[in-house]
Fold each of these.
Amino acid sequence: MEEKKKIMFIINPISGVYKKKNIPEKIARYIDYVKYDYTIRFTQYAGHATLIAQQAVAEGYHVCVAVGGDGSINEVAQSLIGTETALGVIPYGSGNGFATHLKIPPRDAEGALKVLNTGKVVKIDLIKSNIRYVVSNAGFGIDSSVARRFHHHAIRGLASYAWAVVKELLLYFKPFEAKVEIDDVVLEKEFFLFTAFNSNQYGYDYAVFPFTSMKDGVMDVIVMNRFPVWKLFYIVACLMLKRADLIKEAESYRAKRIKIHGSKKMVYQFDGDSVIWHDDVIFEAVPQCINMIVPEGLNSY
Ligand SMILES: [Mg+2]
């Protein structure tokens, strides 16, 4: 008889707009008892998931599952990098960019548990920074301003996120003056948006690039220069069609290393969570550094 694998589910009971109350019941119902011995842990404060995942690694767990959005996955992933313990996901956030890239169904515990039961383990890239690792995307600009002003978890769905962006643009937003080095390219100007992607997703099934890969060892980067507000809908439409090339204010890059020079006014978003940081920020693509459970049939990711 094959030995059972130890799997731990880490649930943040309070964060997020989607109720996770019945998740333990769904785990009990749909987990494969032949394959797994499971444990459920609840987090009690921000950052607790990182500590719990670290303990799981020390205790020899084979799989650690983040139940939540990109922010929760980020917290769990920090402790699994470079270890044998695989990351699993039951996506219950608002945007779910990371899971959507990997074709793990959002807000569908049964579907996500099926991936854990029948899926395969692959190695994927992450973005390393001097602050923390990034699983989906990070950067600064209009999105980091929105993340700071409107509590990330209070935004439910694409429409309310879009509304928050429009309000931010019209009422508050000032472009970021920054100096950024993208490999050998140096940009020093006003940025509306700067995002480095590991996944192809902002979330809400909203991808900017057609072919972003989590196993190619490079980040995909989008830069938006100043644009008039009336062009917003044209720009959003182009981005939704994954045609950033049609926007004259947009530039895209592929990079292994990025340096954002420090300045007093910088506010970042890391996987949707806002981070204030005034020193330099370095992003580096780290190839295939974490084990991840993905659907059995997933080949392009
Ligand atoms: Mg990549």
Note: Residues 5-126+289-294 form a domain with the Rossmann fold fold (CATH 3.40.50.10330).
Amino acid sequence: MRIGARLMDQGMNGTSVGHVNHSKVGYINGIVKKKRCNRRIRRHRALPFPMALQDLFHACQDVFKGPGTVPTPEDVQRLCHILDHMRPEDVGLSQDLQFFKPKSKTKGTPRVTSTTIYQCDNFELCMFFLPSAGVIPLHNHPGMTVFSKLLLGSMHIKSYDWVEPQQVSNGSTMSSKLRLGQVKADGVFTAPCNSSVLYPTTGGNIHAFTAITPCAILDVIGPPYSQEDGRDCLYYKDTPYTTNAALNGDTIQPKEDGERYGWLEEIDMPANAQMDQIEYLGPQVIENRGR
Ligand SMILES: [Fe+2]
């Protein structure tokens, strides 16, 4: 079954997306074929060759040279410029898909679906599909730079960076694992909007997404998560920072700089962090094209 059909199925009857080995994933051309007489949908036919995705791929090849790479401002500008102009159709999506209808409902806990467009040791291109009220809980990106482009929908994003030097609660009534984070983003983003970037230590490296309407987000991650290389994904629970915060004996001074802070506590992987994986069969990147 193709991506559009799978996502439509999910939207209509709440069934989860099938396992990659048991389902095929297509793109909007597949839907166009089924409804060839429907002019409104045909308008969203993807271009035969998705230049934007290919440009993005080549830029990633140039920019990400492995662990330790943090893109220069010029490289960030190059990647953001491409991402800012990308449309859902560049990766085989359309707002006409049933999944993205605002009234589309899922049964039970809304599960997030992900798909990988391309992955190598240096970077990964992937997408996440969040049904309404779907959540990607608070998690980090150790040593990584992540470009995110919201392609469809509306979502709330909250993000933190660690406060340095490290400030850890030594209160007796709360866990000593609490570490102070500074709020970097806490607001609603609606597509079409520009891409955002987080870096290893700045830009909101620890973030959470909550879908207000069904969403699709395209991520460029460099380098990808790797347990072997010490880039495992950790999850957190946040508690608003207050100056008295019931932190008995805590020596942290009240924050009066107008910034917002939160205590972050590492937690086990929450149940809603589990995602369904689907195969990507949208427009493909061609590894040696134009090189
Ligand atoms: Fe993330």
Note: Residues 139, 141, 146, 207 surround fe (ii) ion (CB under 6 Å).
